[in-house]
Backbone:
């Protein structure tokens, strides 16, 4: 194979593989996005509360 045929062959294979992919519907994508944002928000609040609690605890211990 020459220098031109290799990239062309690669792109053909990529296109064939992408045709096999099961793409999400718009509804599934939006639901997943909302779920990720919600879980991220909950984890942020949880970690913030734990951090605040540990900070106050350590400030009392080391005073």
Residues:
């Amino acid at each position: 194979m020459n220098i031109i045929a290799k990239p062309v062959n690669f792109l053909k294979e990529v296109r064939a593989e992408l045709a096999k992919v099961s793409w999400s519907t718009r509804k599934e994508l939006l639901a997943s996005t909302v779920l990720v944002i919600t879980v991220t928000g909950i984890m942020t609040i949880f970690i913030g509360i734990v951090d605040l609690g540990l900070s106050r605890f350590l400030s009392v211990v080391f005073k």
